[in-house]
Amino acid sequence: MVDSLTSRVLLAIVVGAVAAPTVAVAAAGKPHVVMVLVDDWGWNNAGFHRPNDPEVVTPNIDKLVKEGIELDRHYTYHYCSPSRATLQSGRLSVHVSYGFDDPLLVSDKDHMSGFSGIPRNMTGIAAKMRSAGYRTHMTGKWDAGMATWDHTPMGRGYETFFGYFHHAEDYWTQRLSDSDLKPDICGNLVDLWNTTGPARGRNGTAYVEEMFTENTLGILDRHDPAEPLFLFHSFHLIHTPLQVPKAWEDKFSFLENPYRRKYAAMASYMDGVMGQIVAKLQAKGMWENTLIVVSSDNGGPTYNLPVIGPGAASNLPLKGGKMSDWEGGVRVNAFVSGGAIPESKRGSKLEDYVHMSDWYATFCAVAGVNVVDERAAKAGLPPVDGIDHSELLLGKAAFGTGKRQEIHHSARALTMGNYKLITGGMTPLEYKLDETMTHGNGTIPFSDYLNGYEVPEDLYRNAVNCESGCLYDVKADPYETNDIAHLQPLVLEKMMARLSELNKGLFLPDRGIPDSRGCTPWTGFYGPFIDVPAEAPVVEIVI
Question: Closest Cα to residue 86, out of 386, 448, 473?
């Protein structure tokens, strides 16, 4: 395992005993799929939710929404890592990974699931797409595991990856401890990877989003439109640290609060990149056969936490934000667009429930590949939870006929039909205050409607206790203003019982402790440190 590991990655596609179809056959009738994930994007920081406001400048996104389908009830986990594991694996976060997300974690008891991120024997969505003849590429933030080669994007089926592994990094230096995170056991390492090794010579040379944009546009430039493409562009924006080129910040000089100003500029920068990606797809003649999916990974951060500082987002009129299961933490900005959207459905709003896990099943259906994860089944791991919405979005199924009626948000929250139950929060585990509390406790923070740029530092701001169950009709009361638990005791009892039953299936392997072996293999850079091949790897995609 040395830096000379920079030769091409050879991908052997294995689907049982049947070889993958040729590219010509695989390409027939299949749209290009572009998945774009925005980090920490506040509900009220999108132009299609807040039009005609000089603070929110997202014209490219607003146009895409008008030409596509706004996903008004799109849900995720309430913070980064679990949502990303969900997207790549098709599992609800409670069935793949939550809480234990330091990429250096290693267990000496479980060599398959005893790491942060997605278990080694779960098949990633890129592997599914590659087996169907798609070319697969990724740019940006991964945050779904790093310890072994299997945990990396390459191990999950991406042919190329230019990006970083952790939750956040400094936008200018790409060093971890210069960001909003405390230095880990490795100290001040660089987190920037280019498929087979560290991106040496690239770190510290530019704003990281400039490098990411260049990489994605390069992928599109080199791609043969005759082959179906699966492209995942994962922004670091709009996550802290709040850093943006001065020229962009200057456009929002009328905003006096520096956190608010920087966040607005970062959102505008992100929108500009979206415009460049769409323009490149159009120039390549690919747009009319493209499905583009855009989502935030969680609700906007309205907290002000030690070390991290103000999250600076606004989720108004939704309640709460990132790190809570209030709607502001889990109901996110999302839409689909592109030429693949039927004309009859363009410019519409879908009220049916969609969950981040559903894109796995939906993309499998679009690609024409079986959604079942045989490899995981043989290993005794949880099956795919995702629901296929391809007919709802791309076919003739009418809005209102969606198949998802239940969302197991976390060990403390559940939506069933019109009703949502919250029994507390996961903060003891997810703040790493008490990692034995894998089911959280009754306290749920950020139970308010405040903006993230105007709040004092506080871990548990405006916390309430929902131990006995807080119940809301989120269709009639989307802003969670009226707890109706006392008015609907039978609904409360039913949902409490259902949540208790679902929680019996929480996936909680021993993920171990941070391993110092992850500090040294790549001489100053982060990267995989267990079972990394010394030669150009052969990545077998077994589904």
Answer: 386
Q: Angle, nearest 10°, between helix axes 80-89 and 358-367? A: 30
pTM over 0.70: yes
How many CB atoms are located within 10 Å of the residue 358 CB? 26
Residue 364: CA count within 13 A, CB half-sphere: 25
Q: Which helix (H) or strand (E) holds 275?
A: helix 258-283
- Predicted confidence (pLDDT) per residue in 430-476, tens digit: 988 899 999 999 999 999 999 999 999 998 899 999 999 999 999 99
Angle CA(422)–CA(499)–CA(461) in degrees, nearest 5?
Answer: 20
CA distances from 456 to 78, 313, 437, 459 (A): 21, 14, 27, 10
pLDDT digits (tens, 9 = 90+) for 189-199: 999 999 999 99
Given strand 32-38, what is the order of strands in its sheet? 193-194, 160-164, 135-141, 229-234, 32-38, 290-296, 334-337, 69-71, 348-350
Q: Which two tokens stand for residue 280?
A: 């490149």
Burial class (CB in 10 A: 0-12, 13-18, 19+), 332: buried
Assess whether pLDDT exceeds 70 at residue 282. yes
State the angle between helix axes of 258-283 and 208-222 in degrees (0 to 180), rounded to the nearest 10. 10
User: Which of the four pLDDT bands, split at 50, 70 and 90, describes residue 11?
Assistant: very low
Minimal CA–CA distance to 139: which of 208, 87, 206? 208
Q: How far apart are CA 327 and CA 321, in angstroms?
A: 7
Using CA atoms, how far apart are residues 270 and 289, in angstroms rounded to an integer?
A: 23
Once rounded to an integer, what is the mean pLDDT over residues 181-187? 85
What's the mean per-residue pLDDT of the chain? 93
Q: What dihedral angle (degrees, nearest 10) is formed by the CA atoms of 12, 13, 19, 24?
A: -100
How many residues in total does the chain contain? 543
- Token reading at 172: 């200018």
DSSP state of 186: T
User: Is pLDDT at 6 greater than 80 in this prediction?
Assistant: no
Q: What angle do CA 10, 16, 21 make, to 5 degrees?
A: 60
d(Cα 167, Cα 308) in Å, to the nearest integer?
Answer: 12
**Residue 35: φ, ψ to 5°:** -105, 125
Tokens of 392: 């709802």
